[in-house]
Specification:
Blueprint (H helix, E strand, L loop, with lengths): L1 E5 L3 H12 L3 E5 L16 E2 L12 H8 L7 E3 L5 H12 L3 H28 L11 E5 L5 H13 L4 E5 H7 L1 H4 L7 E5 L3 E2 L2 H14 L3 E3 L6 E5 L7 E6 L4 E2 L3 E4 L5 H4 L9 E11 L10 E4 L4 E6 L2 E10 L8 H14 L10 E9 L6 E4 L5 E5 L5 H17 L19
Parallel strand pairs: 1-2, 1-13, 2-9, 4-17, 5-15, 13-20
Antiparallel strand pairs: 3-8, 5-7, 6-7, 10-11, 11-12, 14-17, 14-18, 15-16, 16-17, 19-20
Pfam families: DAO
GO biological process, one term: D-alanine catabolic process
Family: Belongs to the DadA oxidoreductase family.
Length: about 425
């Protein structure tokens, strides 16, 4: 079976890897000159099941309103009054009810947990060094946490099979001594034991090398311009070929893993409810080891991720519903640096810091689309929001099983385009 994958980010490359494992010939088409150059390039770095949760959550409506009056708000909606943005926002707001949030969070957690298992399978077969940190992820709280919230969250994680424990202030400082020097206003922490962090772009590039070594073909600097569809009396339309700026490609099946661009590429063929959420990161070298965290952390108060990537720190956060622009706002990058410096002053070399912004492809319910479409040989693997790295290997394996018609390890209905769980 020959499969063309559009998009060479971590989702597309992971899909190619697992398709090869099932005997498929793969060709990956991407408009960039190398793998992982867009949303996979400098994302937060967390590969986390324990912290996976949809953005459409109780309280998000209030946050969206407040953000209009606070330039430093972690979430920002910049209305452009396009029909596409308005309808996506309205659909997202419907998913903020507690009952919908609970359903969607469980779907996300199941995929992220499965993705950790799939990542371990890849690591056991391929010696990939991607600056991995495997001592868990620590979420810190700067305000008192109600006991009912602690108990409820731990029960949820236990139900999902995720090992975690709540830590007192003193226990947090024992686990992460660098915090004790500079963060007096800290009350508690949640340590998720099996979560990890690593450089997504490095992983993507090295996995792409393995795919190429097994015969996978990569067509770089190649933009899909047209999709030719055969509707010759068949019950379902079928893709005949895709056309780039200079050539035509044919295959038995086509997987679109093009992130936030997927809806535009498939316009008229499939209605893909994905909209870009702009996120930021700053990557900086560690300057003073004893001042730097040993763990990757998430600051619940500032909604800032701090991922340890070998001898570097990746500081990430902010969610802007603001269209398709990717130019970093210097004030936003400074905001992330200030959050990190407040917790770990002097730990990183600011002179060597680099800023980045990318577009997270988000669905209204926060759950990815790993699915067949109404078009017979067309599949989509997109909509992972801020958890694309965390769910990449699981999404790739699930997509490969769906394309080849194999039984899936997890319930594919959770991630189907036309799932009854999507309202």
């Amino acid at each position: 079976m020959e499969v063309i994958i559009v998009g060479a980010g971590v989702i597309g490359v992971a899909t190619a890897h697992f398709l090869q494992q099932q005997g498929c010939q793969v060709r990956i088409v991407d408009r960039r000159p190398a793998p992982g150059m867009e949303c996979s390039y400098a994302n937060g770095g967390f590969y986390s099941a324990g912290l996976s949760a949809p953005w459409s959550a109780p309280g998000a409506i209030r946050m969206a309103v407040v953000s209009q009056f606070d330039k430093s708000a972690a979430f920002k909606w910049r209305p452009d009054f396009t029909w596409r943005q308005i309808t996506w926002m309205m659909q997202s707001l419907k998913e903020c009810r507690p009952d919908r949030f609970s359903i969607n969070r469980a779907r996300l957690t199941r995929m992220a947990k499965y993705a950790l298992e799939c990542l371990r399978h890849i690591e056991s077969a391929l010696p990939i060094d991607y600056q991995r940190s495997v001592n868990g992820v620590l979420q810190i709280y700067r305000e008192p946490v109600p006991q009912a919230m602690i108990d409820g969250h731990l029960r949820y994680l236990e139900t999902m099979g995720i090992a975690a424990n709540f830590l007192s202030r003193a226990q947090v400082f024992t686990l992460e001594p660098a915090l004790a020097r500079s963060t007096p206003h800290l009350f508690a922490g949640l340590h998720v034991h099996d979560d990890l962090s690593g450089d997504c772009q490095v992983f993507t590039a090295k996995l792409a090398e393995a795919v190429a070594a097994r015969g996978g073909v990569f067509d770089w600097n190649t933009t899909v311009k047209q999709i030719h569809v055969d509707q010759s009396g068949a019950a379902r339309a079928k893709i005949r070929s895709i056309v780039s700026q200079d050539r035509e490609f044919k295959a038995d099946a086509y997987v679109f893993a093009a992130g936030a661009d997927t809806p535009m590429l498939l316009k008229g063929l499939a209605d893909i409810p994905v909209y870009p959420i702009k996120g930021y990161s700053v990557t900086a070298p560690i300057a003073t080891e004893e001042r730097a965290p040993r763990h990757s952390l998430f600051d619940f108060a500032t909604k800032t991720g701090m991922a340890r990537l070998g001898d570097r720190m990746r500081i990430s956060g902010i969610a802007e519903v603001a269209g398709y622009g990717t130019t970093p706002d210097a004030a936003r990058s400074d905001q992330l640096l200030a959050a990190f410096e407040g917790a770990f002053p002097g730990a990183i070399g600011l002179q060597g810091a680099t800023s980045w912004a990318g577009l997270r492809p988000a669905t209204p319910d926060g759950v990815p689309l790993v699915s067949r479409t109404a078009c017979e040989n067309l599949y989509v693997n997109t909509g992972h929001g801020g958890s694309g790295w965390s769910m990449s290997c699981g999404s790739g394996k699930l997509m490969a099983d769906i394309v080849t018609g194999r039984p899936t390890d997890i319930d594919a209905t959770d991630y189907a385009l036309l799932s009854p769980l999507r309202r």
